[in-house]
Amino acid sequence: MAFTNLSIDSEIIRFKEHLKQENNNRILFSGIFGIGKTYFIENFFDNNEDYISIKLNPVNYSVSPNQDIFELIKFDIAFQLLAKNPDFQKTNFSKIFAGQFYVLENYKNIIGELFLNLSKLDHHVNAIIEPAVKLGKKIEEYAKKVNVDEEKELNEFLIFFKEQKGTIREENNISELLTTLISTLKQNDLNKEIVLVIDDLDRIDPEHIFRLLNVFSAHFDFHGLVGVNKFGFDKVILICDIENIRGIFHNKYGAEIDFSGYIDKFYSKEVYYYKIEEIIKNSLKTILIKLKCNQTSFNEQISSQNSYLQTELQFLFSFFIDSGSVSLRSLISFLDKEISLKTYSLQSTKLGIGRVHSSSTPILFIIGILENFFGSRSNFIKAIDRAIEKFPLIYLEKYGNYTGYTIGNLAMLASYNQTQLLVNDKESESYKYEILDWTIEYKTEWYNHSYGIIGYMQKVYQSIAALDEESKSDHNIILPYFQLFKKAYFAYNEIVKKID
Fold first, then answer.
1. pLDDT in the model for residue 382
2. Residue 313, Cα to own-chain centre: how many angstroms?
């Protein structure tokens, strides 16, 4: 499984339409880390004849001083332009013509030198020449004083300033050469646009981020260059996670500083959000059945068509993807290793053999798999909290075994301290678990030939607040699902502590 196994055709069409919008010459391309932004952009420009792309990776500049960033940018642009075989401007003068040109440009110095050399041969000549040369110099100095050329002085100041390396107005010979080369590429390929792509912007030092952004924004505003990009690029694409940039900005300048007013100048139309989440979610089944675990029962259940374990993992991963906790890269990386889970059993006085086995209790398996995926308890809790923040309430189909099991299992585990995962003694008996304003009634049942147990929700209702009309529907259950999931995970940790 890899990025290349996913179809990104629909996203390519959407991005192409975005690029072709009139006057859309600055694009901010946003997506979370590991979602496949780099792969998408490279694939897009490698297979699109309308554009010639020049790509920068500023993460390579992380060890360089801040003032050198712009020089490194120019180096990378120049290096890639050379690979495009541009036509360099070359001028060949004959020695005779070059000599004539030199004399015309430097005749005053040449005459002065000739006179001085003649004076070495004849002291009488020297008596005349030296005063004449000195007089000429004095005349030139006086002329400079009386003939003030304000425009010339201003131009000289501007030229001096723009030739200083590292300033935001820097326009030295190399900068002018890059602009000329890009213009030449445009002339050679009249139907193509030249695009500068700056990747992984949010993965570099904050000082570098804002230095790089400020260099380009200063050019946007300079001399009324409305819509004109640095070096003459038709389009500049900045690739990052806009939320990361927002966080870095506020950390650097303060939470009260308006981020939108700052970042707006870096895109012409609107932020382009890379939307591959639906593609990943539609591929979850294909991804998950490739998981390998040291537990045989897991491998059997994950590959079984529409098994509860497979369905539940697809359901949970979908929400973790939507809340930004799971990337395509992390999923693919997870496939490359075998998951190692501990097996354990829990004491239960009311079960026939007195034990509940983790490998036969689906909810224990599922949480163990997810904790393994996120790498640590703290990372897993952060992912759950992000899901709670984005999805404080979710809707589930009221009828159907899956809804009954997903809610029932979480309620069963969350109430571990009260029920100890015991199977209900009587057919009519059920347990209750309360969370916020909701009450969940559920039963526990034998699972997998009595070696494990499973919870099944029978009823969910709000204790206090009235539901809105939509949530009262016979077809939906509204529930603070991930708050319930967090309680279940805390109970899971208590169980594991006892085992350890």
1. 96
2. 26
Chain segment 318-339, per-residue pLDDT in tens: 999 999 898 888 888 888 788 8
d(CA 156, CA 162): 10
Q: Residues 391-430: pLDDT tens digits? A: 999 988 876 788 999 999 999 999 988 888 777 766 667 8
* Least confident segment among 84-98, 310-324, 447-461: 84-98
- Residue 133 CA, chain-centre distance (Å), reads 68
Contacts of 191 (CB under 8 A, 6+ apart): 50
How far apart are alpha carbons 435 and 449 in whole angstroms? 31
Express each pLDDT in 120-157 by its tens digit. Answer: 555 555 555 566 566 556 556 655 554 555 445 445 54
Structure tokens at 446: 């034998």
pLDDT of 91 strictly over 50: no
**Rounded CA gap, 361 and 410, in Å?**
12
The answer to which of 115-119, 176-180, 431-435, 488-492 has the lowest mean pLDDT is 115-119
Q: What does the block give as tokens for 429?
A: 């008996």
CA–CA distances in Å: residue 202 to residues 120, 225, 232, 324? 69, 27, 24, 16
Q: Could you tell me which of 181, 136, 168 has the C-alpha nearest to residue 66?
A: 168
Domain range 3-85+160-273, CATH architecture: 3-Layer(aba) Sandwich (3.40)
Task: Give CA–CA dist 269/80, Å, rounded.
Answer: 28
Give the separation between CA 39 and CA 44, rounded to whole angstroms: 8
Residue 90 has, within 13 A of its CA and on its CB side, a CA count of: 4
